[in-house]
Specification:
- The structure is a single chain.
- The protein has one domain: Four Helix Bundle (Hemerythrin (Met), subunit A) (Up-down Bundle), CATH 1.20.120.
- The chain contains 9 helices and no strands.
- The model has no long low-confidence stretch (mean pLDDT about 95).
- About 80% of the residues lie in helices and about 0% in strands.
- It is mainly α and about 220 residues long.
- Helix 2 runs antiparallel to helix 4 and helix 8 packs across helix 9.
- The structure holds protoporphyrin IX containing FE.
- This is Membrane protein.
- Keywords: Membrane, Transmembrane, Transmembrane helix.
- It comes from Peribacillus loiseleuriae.
Length: about 220
C-alpha cells in the first residue's frame, strides 16, 4: 500500500513553508516575533503554545491520511487521532485568545472565523467517530484538516497577492511598501479559508461520485 505522491508533495511543501515561520518562536524571545506583541507575559506565551500545538496537529493530521496506518492499524489511527483532536482543541482555543490582541479588524475576523470553524469541524469529526459513523467522520476530518492547512495556503499565497496588489494598482505602490504588506496580511487568511474550502468540498464530492458509480456497476 504505497502512499500517493500528492501526499508526499503536500507534506514537504507544508513543512517547508511552516518551519521557517515557526523557528523564531522556538527561541522564546518576544523580540523575534513577527506578530505584533503587546504583552510578553500573556499574549506571547499563548501565541507560542498555540504554534507548538498547531504544529503537532499538522504532523499528526498528515499521519492520519496514511492508508497503511488507517486501514491496517486502526488502534494506531485511534491513538494518533486523540493526539490530533487534543492539539486542535488546545491550539484553537489559544488562537481565539490571541485574536483579541490583533489590532486590524479584517485580520482579527479572519482568524476568529478560522478558529471557530477549526474547533467546530474537529468536534463534529470526533463526535462522528464516537458514534461510529465513519463515513461522516472521514468527511468532517477532511474539512478540519483542510482548515489546519489554511496556515500553509495563506502563506504560500502571499507572493500571488503581492503580484495581484501591484497589478490592481497599475504597477505602482500608492501607499508604499509597508502598507502593501499590511493589506496583504489582512486578506491572506481569507484567501486560504476560501481556497481550502473549495478544494476539500470538491474532493469530498468527487469521492462520493466515485463510490456511487462503483455501487451502480
Ligand atoms: C487553523 C487554525 C488556526 C488559527 C485560527 C490560527 C490563529 C493564529 C493567530 C490569531 C495568530 C497570531 C497572528 C498575529 O497576531 O498577527 C497565529 C500565528 C501563527 N500561527 Fe496560527 N492559527 C491556526 C493554525 C495554525 C497552524 C496549523 C500552524 C502551523 C504550525 C500555525 C502557526 C502559526 C505561526 C507560525 C504563527 C506566527 C505567524 C507569524 O509569525 O507571522 N497556526 N495563528
Amino acid at each position: 500500500m504505497k502512499q500517493k505522491k500528492s501526499w508526499w508533495i503536500l507534506v514537504i511543501v507544508s513543512l517547508g513553508v511552516i518551519i521557517p515561520f515557526m523557528a523564531p518562536y522556538l527561541t522564546f524571545n518576544p523580540a523575534k516575533s513577527r506578530a505584533m506583541i503587546t504583552s510578553t507575559t500573556l499574549q506571547y506565551p499563548i501565541l507560542v503554545t498555540h504554534i507548538i500545538f498547531a504544529f503537532i496537529s499538522l504532523i499528526t493530521g498528515f499521519l492520519q491520511f496514511i492508508d497503511r496506518i488507517r486501514i491496517k492499524n486502526p488502534h494506531i489511527h485511534r491513538y494518533i487521532g486523540k493526539i490530533y483532536v487534543s492539539s486542535v482543541f488546545v491550539s484553537g482555543i489559544l488562537a481565539l485568545v490571541v485574536t483579541f490582541y490583533i489590532k486590524d479588524f479584517t485580520k482579527a475576523v479572519a482568524f476568529l472565523t478560522l478558529a471557530i470553524l477549526w474547533l467546530f469541524t474537529c468536534w463534529k469529526g470526533y463526535r462522528m467517530a464516537i458514534i461510529k459513523d465513519f463515513k461522516e467522520h472521514r468527511i468532517w476530518m477532511m474539512r478540519n484538516f483542510g482548515l489546519t492547512l489554511v496556515a500553509v495556503t495563506a502563506r504560500i499565497f502571499v507572493p500571488v497577492l503581492l503580484l495581484t496588489y501591484y497589478i490592481l494598482n497599475g504597477f505602482t505602490l500608492p501607499e508604499g511598501r509597508e502598507k502593501m504588506i499590511e493589506e496583504i496580511l489582512n486578506v491572506n487568511i481569507w484567501v486560504g479559508i476560501v481556497l481550502n474550502f473549495v478544494i476539500v468540498e470538491w474532493s469530498i464530492m468527487k469521492k462520493e461520485d466515485n463510490s456511487t458509480i462503483r455501487n451502480n456497476l
